[in-house]
Write a structure and sequence with these properties.
Low-confidence stretches: none
Order of helices and strands: EHEHEEEHEEE
Strand order of the largest sheet: 1-2-6-7
Strand content: 25-35%
Helix content: 10-25%
Structural class: alpha/beta
Number of helices: 3
Radius of gyration: 15 Å
């Protein structure tokens, strides 16, 4: 599945820098490609969509983090099989700003999710996940703990 089939839009991240009231960060991923491929990847063996607990969200850098134009790949994977559900290119600055907002939101949030992921297929909502973890890896595949969103008490 091609990465250019996806569009990513984020909401509720500017409040961190603006000093506004905390709002749960959201990412909306719109897919414009062959529906059956993504629907199959989003599905469990019974044919229903994967639950939030059955998916992982990560960002893999393609450039050194110090590079002002650093970019990488955002991925959602099936936690059970390890298969990629989707991947898309994104700038490191944008992803790290999103993670920072999710971290700040989680400090005071009473609900379970620190951020929300919505996946839409041709404008129709397919899945919505409330997530707490967002892992960041360098270009060599090493986990960058200080840049990742890892809830306290979680051991990796």
């Amino acid at each position: 599945m091609r990465r250019d089939y996806f569009e990513l839009d984020v909401e509720n991240v500017s409040w961190v820098d603006d000093g506004g009231d905390p709002k749960k960060p959201q990412v909306r991923i719109d897919f414009h490609g062959p529906n059956d491929v993504l629907e199959r990847r989003l599905s469990d063996p019974t044919g229903g969509y994967l639950e939030a607990s059955e998916t992982d969200v990560a960002f893999r850098l393609q450039d050194p983090l110090e590079d002002p134009d650093a970019a990488g790949v955002v991925s959602v994977t099936n936690r059970i099989t390890g298969d990629f559900v989707l991947e898309l290119n994104e700038s490191a600055d944008d992803v790290l700003a999103f993670i920072r907002a999710a971290r700040e939101y989680g400090r005071d949030a009473a609900d379970e999710g620190r951020y929300r992921v919505e996946v839409r297929i041709d404008g129709e909502e397919a899945v919505v996940y409330e997530k707490q973890t967002f892992l960041v890896y360098d270009a060599d595949g090493n986990l960058l703990r200080s840049h990742s969103l890892i809830p306290s008490g979680v051991e990796l």
